[in-house]
Design brief:
Elements: E1 35-42, E2 50-54, E3 57-58, E4 69-76, E5 78-86, E6 92-100, E7 105-111, E8 118-124, E9 133-140, E10 148-152, E11 160-163, E12 172-175, E13 177-186, E14 192-201, E15 206-212, E16 224-229
Parallel strand pairs: 1-7, 9-15
Antiparallel strand pairs: 1-4, 2-3, 2-5, 5-6, 7-8, 9-12, 10-11, 10-13, 13-14, 15-16
Length: 233
């Protein structure tokens, strides 16, 4: 089951599967364990459907295609092994080990092309923004996109500058707003490469914006940008 995810903690819960949590009646002899929160984001530009595993537990219950996100899932804290495979395959395409801190949220990005697939684990700063503010983070996940900057609302100064592939910013405070334009810019020329129009930043909410896709492609796998809410905050 998914657990409620808050700024201060992920609930301590009963764990019945190796990586994720299931509902259960409390057993008086059962010791509760600490858990972590996990987003999984498919940012690898491929038409292949993928599966992601935490230890031996599959995190992707539905078709996990380019641009999809799942989470927050509740997983054991501690050293976990993460694998990505083609859907239905037992053959690992890439594996990493990461120590999940208890009561901390993470975002695991599947990145790069299928032939060079990678996993990028980022710790999420889920401290609540000040009143009237939201927080945003930018991640460059376009393999051929070059160094990128993020501009919010046409401001004279870019909020995030010069992020190469797999580089990312800290979470930055921005004004809450019902509608703002986000521009992903070439860090060298300043040219706008992708836009998210009418983005909404709600008071007290936390978001990640990421560049994805390939400049060499068009259509669904072409260069673009996407934003997601860190749900539960």
């Amino acid at each position: 089951m998914k657990l409620s995810f808050t700024y201060k903690a992920i609930a301590v819960a009963l764990v019945l599967s190796l990586g994720f949590l299931s509902c259960s009646k409390l057993d008086r002899d059962y010791e509760p364990v600490q858990v972590s929160g996990l987003n999984v984001i498919q940012a690898s530009p491929t038409t292949e459907l993928l599966d992601v595993y935490v230890d031996n537990s599959r995190a992707t219950a539905t078709d996990f295609e380019f641009g999809n996100k799942i989470g927050y899932l509740s997983a054991y804290a501690g050293n976990r092994i993460f694998n990505v495979t083609k859907k239905g395959s037992a053959t690992s395409l890439k594996s990493i080990t990461h120590n999940l801190k208890p009561q901390v949220g993470y975002s695991l990005f599947v990145a790069n092309t299928l032939a060079n697939i990678e996993l990028l684990m980022l710790e999420d700063d889920l401290a609540k923004p000040a009143t009237g503010k939201a927080k945003i983070r930018f991640v460059n996940l376009s393999p051929d996109g070059g160094s990128l900057s993020l501009n919010v609302g046409g401001a004279a100064t870019d909020l995030v500058t010069n992020k190469a592939f797999k580089e990312f910013s800290a979470f930055e405070a921005v004004d809450a707003t019902q509608s703002v334009t986000l521009n992903i810019k070439n860090a060298t020329s300043g040219a706008i490469e992708a836009t998210i129009a009418d983005a909404k930043f709600e008071d007290g909410k936390i978001y990640t914006i990421y560049a994805k896709g390939l400049k060499a492609n068009t259509g669904d796998l072409g260069f673009s940008a996407k934003m997601f809410l860190h749900s539960g905050n």
